[in-house]
Amino acid sequence: MHTEIVSVDNDMDNFVSYQQAVDILKSGGVVAFPTETVYGLGALATDAKAVQRIFEAKGRPSDNPLIVHIGNKEDVSNYAVDVPENADKLMNAFWPGPLTLVFHKKPGVIAENVTPGFDTVGIRMPDHPVALNLLRALGGPLAAPSANRSGKPSPTEATHVLTDLAGRIPLIVDGGKTGVGVESTVLDMTSNPPEILRPGGVTREMIEDIIGPVRAEIEGANEDDAPRAPGMKYMHYAPESPLFVIEPDETVIQEAVRQLHSEGKKVAVIGPDEFTIPEADWYFAVGPLHDDEAMAAHLYGSIRQCDLTDADLILAVGTEAEGVGAAVMNRLLKAADGKRFNG
Ligand code: TXA
Ligand code: MG
Known about the structure:
Layout: E1 4-7, H1 19-26, E2 31-34, E3 39-44, H2 48-58, E4 67-69, H3 76-79, E5 80-81, H4 85-94, E6 99-105, E7 120-124, H5 129-138, E8 142-143, H6 158-165, E9 171-174, E10 185-188, E11 195-198, H7 204-211, E12 215-216, E13 243-246, H8 250-262, E14 267-271, E15 282-285, H9 292-307, E16 313-317, H10 324-335
Parallel strand pairs: 1-9, 2-9, 4-7, 6-10, 11-12, 13-16, 14-15, 14-16
Antiparallel strand pairs: 2-3, 3-8, 4-8, 5-6, 6-7, 10-11
Helix pairs in contact: 9-10
This protein binds threonylcarbamoyladenylate and magnesium ion.
């Protein structure tokens, strides 16, 4: 299969730009498209055969449920039941935006394989003009996981999608780099209090400002806990070489690189713009020190760049697990499989 890339940047608001994508989706195919978080691989969520193609293209275990994307807030009632008042408040505050809300599923509407074995459904309204225009031109819901091969970091540029899925999908809608850079916050509204199953761009602090205390027990990679967000149990975002989280201290990193060199290892470092680590074999800058938003935006791209080197080991600078930093540390510790560099 040939994978075509169509750029909509110059005519984003013209629905003609989306006709090819809409035609493919309506005939049961899959299309990659940008959201404000990461690129998604979409299929019509009411078409089980189309949804099956997502799992095949990604090589994704089919027991891991997919998020349903909608173009209007009002569409929620088409797919979910028992939507609590708190959820209305959150939708008004954060939609469109990087917040997925898990509700009880309305039976018989969304294809069974979108949420295999679950009586719940995760729904979000993405905050990206291309995603919203595509959803509105299509006039239906899109089931869409991140558009990477299973086990790779989520794509934040169309070229990342092409690297992973060339020959496996017919079309990538290119809308440039995504903004947030890590996947949406997943909040389970069916438990009381609501529980953050995956930290993301809408932070715990922002949610609690609107609806009061929520549960959030997933600071790091608690892979052994029985996962409520099934995606959590799979090894994710794994770089080719082992990755270690290291403290944001220039001297500590320089010392670590020296030590690893003495063991004959080539080292790639992911760190802030300001650090100078002349000994590092590769250095990938992810924005100003302590700027968690910038780090989120650049993290997956920098892990992909490490994969293009022949580094034996990756050192990635950590941050505080607060605000967007919670999402950054969650993804970093997953990529590290929990490992921290301690010399
Ligand atoms: O930002 C995002 O959310 C991106 C873009 C494309 O929208 N999508 C994304 O999808 O990250 P995916 O499939 O890679 O991650 C979905 C996460 C998984 O951890 C999954 O287990 C969880 O959401 N999830 C989906 N439906 C769920 C449900 N009904 N109950 C619990 N967890 C659910
Ligand atoms: Mg994913």
